[in-house]
Write a structure and sequence with these properties.
Blueprint lengths: L2 E6 L6 H7 L2 E3 L5 H9 L5 E6 L5 E14 L9 E16 H6 L7 H4 L5 E4 L1 H11 L3
Parallel strand pairs: 1-3
Antiparallel strand pairs: 1-6, 2-5, 3-4, 4-5
Length: 136
C-alpha cells in the first residue's frame, strides 16, 4: 500500500462536504509532479486530506477507489483524475505548523515541496501523523 496527501481549499471542497458526498472525482490537477503521483495511486491506497490556504491542517483520510484515468474536464490527454471516498476523520487535525516543528517530519513533501497538491507520504510519516492526531 502507498500513502499520499491531497490538498483542497475548504471553501472550494471541504472534508465535511467530501464526507457528505461519500465519494469524489479528484480532478483539475495541472501540475506534472502531482499528476505523476496520481498516476501512481492504486486502488486501496490511503491519502491524507489536507485543508490548504485556510485551516492548514490534515483533517482526514481518503481511500483511492478508482485508479487514474483521463480527466473529463479537459481534452488534453496529459491530465488524469482518480476517484476516492472518505475513510476516516482524524481524532484531531494535525496542523502544518505542527508538522514543520517536528524534526521527524522534516523531509515530508508537504514541507519540502509545499505547493504540490498531491504528494507522496512515506509509511513512517503516515503512521506518525496518525499517532499525533490521537494525542490531546
Amino acid at each position: 500500500m502507498n500513502y499520499w496527501l491531497i490538498k483542497s481549499e475548504p471553501f472550494k471542497y471541504s472534508w465535511e462536504k467530501f464526507k457528505k458526498d461519500k465519494k469524489a472525482v479528484w480532478d483539475g490537477v495541472r501540475n506534472y509532479s502531482a499528476r505523476n503521483n496520481m498516476r501512481a495511486m492504486k486502488k486501496g491506497d490511503l491519502a491524507f486530506f489536507y485543508h490548504s490556504n485556510e485551516g492548514l491542517e490534515i483533517v482526514g483520510i481518503a481511500k483511492i477507489t478508482k485508479e487514474a484515468y483521463q480527466d473529463p474536464t479537459t481534452e488534453d490527454a496529459a491530465w488524469c483524475v482518480v476517484e476516492l471516498s472518505p475513510f476516516k476523520t482524524l481524532k484531531r487535525p494535525v496542523s502544518l505548523s505542527e508538522i514543520k516543528a517536528d524534526e521527524k517530519l522534516s523531509e515530508m513533501q508537504i514541507v519540502k515541496m509545499s505547493r504540490l497538491s498531491v504528494s507522496v507520504v512515506k509509511p513512517f510519516e503516515f503512521d506518525y501523523i496518525i499517532a499525533l492526531s490521537e494525542l490531546k
